Structures are given as C-alpha cells and as structure tokens.
Give the backbone structure.
Amino acid sequence: MLDALCDRLSESFNKQSTAVQQFFFERYLCIKTSLYRLSAQGHNKANDLTLFLMLHSISTAFKSLLRPSEMSSHDKSPADSLTGVIAEGQCDIDNVLMHLEAKEFTVEPSTLQSLQQLIQWIADLALNLLVKLPDSRPSATKPYELLRDVKALNVLREMLVLIRIWGLLRPACLPVFTKSDATLDVLPLVFRLLSRLVQNISEPDDTLIGKS
C-alpha cells in the first residue's frame, strides 16, 4: 500500500510543469522519503532518496557558482549547457569538456578548495553505486532504487564533469582514491560506467562491469 501511495505521488508530481517540478523537487523528495520511513521494508528506499536529496543539494550549490562569461550573448546558462551535453549520452568525460566553454566553469581556486569534502562525497557516492551493481537487479519489488533513477545518475554525471574541470584549475580539490594502479585515471572510468548504465538501465550488471 505504501509503494502504491508513493507511486501515485510520483505520478502526480511528474504531471506538473517543469518549473513547478524544479521549485518543489526537494520538498517532493523529503515527503517521499518520510513516507518510505514509515515502513520497515521501505528504509532502503528512504536511504536512497536521502542520498538523492543530498546529491541534488550539492548539485544546486555547485551550479550556483557558475557564471556566463558574457550574459548578453548566451541563450543558456552554464548549468543548462552542461545538462544539455550530458543528455546527449556522451561516455567520454573529456569529450564532454570539448563541448563546453571552459571560461564559464571557472571558479576561484580558494573556493574550489573549500568544496573538497563535498567533491569527495560525490566521488564516494559514484563508487558505492557501482560497487552495488552486481547485487542489484531491476525488480517489481523495488519501486525505487537510486541505481535505477536515470535523473539521479545524470545529476551525478554532471557533478563528475564539474569535478574534472575544477581539478584542472585546482588539483588539490580533486577526490582522493586508493588505487592499486597509480596510473589509473578514476574519474573518466567512473563516468564511462555510469554513462553506460544510463544508456541501458536494465543491462546485466556483471556484463556492464565486464565490458569496462
């Protein structure tokens, strides 16, 4: 019954205009999270929604730092441009950078350094989701799962692109990874895996990892 109620809430919310959805999105996530916490079986879904809420909040904060280089000559904000490029389904993070105007994503190095802990959280979330892939399969008994939420995964991909750009400006702000191979560039690999997951959300997880 709780799942049906949450489904009705999602259905009603998705019928609203884009502007309304954007304005009330955080409140919508909070309500849905609270509903799932009413049931012992809903705690995992509530935890995933809490992670999405945190991800959305960080995304909003990061994007608020972006400023067009020349406001009058842009039809889209830098954040909108990033969202548009991500929606094209590009799997190579460095190719994504080629479609963006670097000046619009420049942030003061001191500001970037203050964001390092949030940047680390984003990277840790991406890795944790990928680690869960082999044990996670689409199922009718899982009405919500962060790994199957294309919108959440695309927000995460956007954040990885920003981290990639900002790491070029301030390497010290980059997330720290424990690697068995010192030459491994983790961000492009994580971005590619998440991109392939978005392209086929029901793809067998072991195949996804195996092809990487």
About this structure: The radius of gyration is 18 Å. The chain has one domain: 2-210.
